[in-house]
Amino acid sequence: MSYQQNGNWFRQIQRAFVFIRAYRGSVFVILGMTLAASALEVMEPLVLKYLFDNLGSGTLRALGIGVACLFAIGITRESINGSSNWLAWRVRLGLNANLMEATVGRLHSLPLAYHREESVGSIMTKLDRGINGFVGALAEMVFNILPAVVYLALSLIVMLRLDWRLSVVVLVFAPLPALIGMWAAGEQTQRERTLMDSWSKIFSRLNEVLSGILTVKSFVMEDEEKKKFLAGVNGANEVVLRGVATDTRVGAAKNLVTLLAKISSIALGGYLVYRHEVTIGTLIAFLGYVGGLFGPVQGLTGVYQTIRKATVSLDTIFSILDAHDHMCDAPDAQPVKALKGEVIYDRVSFSYHRNKPILQGINLCVEPGEIIALVGPSGAGKTTMMALLQRLYDPTAGTVYVDGMDIRKMKQRSLRRHIGVVFQEALLFNDTVKNNIAYGKPGACRHEIEGAAKAANIHEVIMRMAEGYETLIGERGSRLSGGEKQRVSIARAILKDPPILILDEATSSLDAESEALVREALAHLMTGRTTFIIAHRLSTVVGANRILVLRDGQITEAGNHAKLMELGGYYASLVKNQTRGLLDQKAA
């Protein structure tokens, strides 16, 4: 390991220890208990020495004392190990929770650009394997390796006092497991990284497939997707199997070293007993230490591997915690207490990653309570304009003002609390209808929730459900129709009571009957609010105060429906194209 790598993992470990500060007391107690257990293990061979050296005394006193001591040592050691194991798991679970809180909180705070670059499946795999891998490695280092060091040190002291010649024989073999472990560590570390990357890709694809299962079934791609998944799993398993083969060879080599150390100790010890230079009890005690010694020695040989595994996991965790957040609140950002709903775009331009500009020099002033419709071809910048208003992105040039204040001077969360959004596909959670409606206002009372549902024309539907407002609606609202899901999302926006409202293709995927109910609900929702309507179905924008036509990132036409029809430009052509079929049928 190079000096730079050495310093890197050391800094990572230092950072990671921040997460267990709250459990320092428990960690010290565990260490004390495990050290006591290690000391008891060191005493056990000495009791065996006493027992066998005194068996020929002609009395059973030595036997009784030896057996009683072994029993007491065993009971005490197991009690200590049981208590320390319970406490260690308590610390592990607490550390896991702390890491989860930090990483999940970070994921929630990161800008939308990060989530568009990282797939959900990849993030979930990194989160799970990274945190569990680090917690396991840390637990091994703190709760297993340190006690092993203590046992090793005490054992060596006792062994040298018993007989230095036998100790030298054992010490000849002791470094070999460490050398074997270091030889295998490079391959093991690379394997961990390969597996982390492989499983991230596998579950990223699986998440996409399950989320789009309707498309998969429609194109009869179930078997192909299954083959792709199994091919990925088999590839990862092959890496595991190759690793198992390596680990098996490494383990066998270490066990062979242990066997050679025992045989050498027995050979030399037997010879010394034959020459009456050591007692039978000394040899038995010594063999007890040899048997117990190579377990900690082999554990210590895994320190390097354990640390490298921990660094792989920490790389994953810190890749989330250290992800660049260019959208964080400014130091002087102010919370938003109340808004009237005035919105101004002042020479606003925007592009993704220095690509072709999505918006170019947008100037727009919207009065409180005004209804603005945005129309134009896909990719013209309509949704991007609304993303900038919510400060999901920052303009590459220009400024967005709300009530005369640059939104970059507002705290993002408080700004978004004053903006309601109804999307084309309503995102509902596998929870009760009540909780889905109250999602934007968790403390809402039942009366408020029902009032919002009635305004959204969904109350009667809910009351016909098996458990009314307590009915679980399934993942993504799968137990509701498209129109019902949309009205639940509208009820959610009504309950939030925002001064600014964004309707992003809110009726485009509905049938005529559902659309009529949703339109009536939207009429309640838009009353008295600054509203932005994004729509391709132009029948939904006819009543807007102003209709803005976006093309190539610029506002090319502006006015109400009648004015734009008189203008005879792009908007008028869109209206004619959408009504041509109906007009042709009427003429026929």
Question: How is this structure best summarized?
Answer:
With 588 residues, this protein is α/β, with parallel strands linked by helices.
Number of strands: 10
Parts with pLDDT < 50 across at least 5 consecutive residues: 1-7, 582-588
Could you tell me the strand content as a percent range? 5-15%
Q: Which class do the helix and strand fractions yield?
A: alpha/beta
Number of domains: 2
Mass-distribution shape: elongated
For CATH, the homologous superfamily of the largest domain is named as: ABC transporter type 1, transmembrane domain
Strand arrangement, major sheet: 6-7-8-3-9-10
Distance between the termini: 83 Å
Radius of gyration: 35 Å
In DSSP terms, counting alpha (H) and pi (I) runs of 4 or more, how many helices? 20
How is the main sheet built? 6 strands, mixed
Helices, strands, pairings?
Layout: H1 3-16, H2 24-53, H3 61-109, H4 112-117, H5 120-162, H6 164-173, H7 175-211, H8 213-218, H9 222-274, H10 280-301, H11 303-321, E1 343-350, E2 359-366, E3 371-375, H12 382-389, E4 397-402, E5 405-406, H13 412-416, E6 419-422, H14 433-437, H15 446-455, H16 459-463, H17 482-496, E7 500-504, H18 512-526, E8 530-534, E9 546-551, E10 554-559, H19 561-567, H20 570-587
Helix pairs in contact: 1-11, 2-3, 2-5, 2-10, 3-5, 5-6, 5-7, 5-10, 5-11, 6-9, 7-9, 7-10, 7-11, 9-10, 15-17, 17-18
Describe this structure in words.
It is a single chain. The strands form 2 sheets. The chain has a 6-stranded mixed β-sheet with strand order 6-7-8-3-9-10, with helices on both faces. α15 (446-455) crosses α17. It is elongated, with a radius of gyration of 35 Å. β4 (397-402) and β5 form a beta hairpin. By secondary structure, the protein is of the alpha/beta class. The protein has 2 domains: 3-321, ABC transporter transmembrane region fold (Up-down Bundle); 409-587, Rossmann fold (3-Layer(aba) Sandwich), CATH 3.40.50. It is built from 20 helices and 10 strands. The termini are far apart.
